[in-house]
Amino acid sequence: MAPYFEKRLCEKLPTKADRILNRIRDARGGKLNSSVFGERMRGKGQYWNAQEKLFEVYTRRLGFNEHRVGSERHARANTFRRPTAQGSLFG
User: Fold this and answer.
1) What is the pTM of this model?
2) Structural domain contains residue 86
3) HEC states along the chain?
4) Structural domain harbouring 10
5) pLDDT, position 43
6) How much is the pLDDT for 78?
7) Which terminus of the chain faces fewer neighbouring Cβ atoms within 10 Å, N or C?
8) How far is CA 59 from CA 40, 52, 56, 64, 73, in A?
9) In a domain, 80, yes or no
10) Domain total for the chain?
11) Domain presence at residue 75
């Protein structure tokens, strides 16, 4: 998978491919991919930590991942109707 990724990246972004691959290697401890369970979506290093902090800042600024009091889910709890006899479908 890594050779295919590198080839496609070099085709689409020839001037930026080396920089992108180096960033990925930096976050993966020198490798492009890790097949170890639990490490696929995680990174390491200063650049990765900066990206995590930036993501947290923007999610907070845009209001994502907040628990809302009186959310729509609670308002919709009363909209469920119990099934009735089939005759009520025609009445």
Assistant:
1) 0.55
2) no
3) CHHHHHHHHHHHCCCCHHHHHHHHHHHCCCCCCCCCCCCCCCCCCHHHHHHHHHHHHHHHHHCCCCCCCCCHHHHHHHHCCCCCCHHHHHC
4) 1-33+40-61
5) 83
6) 64
7) C
8) 22, 11, 5, 5, 21
9) no
10) 1
11) no
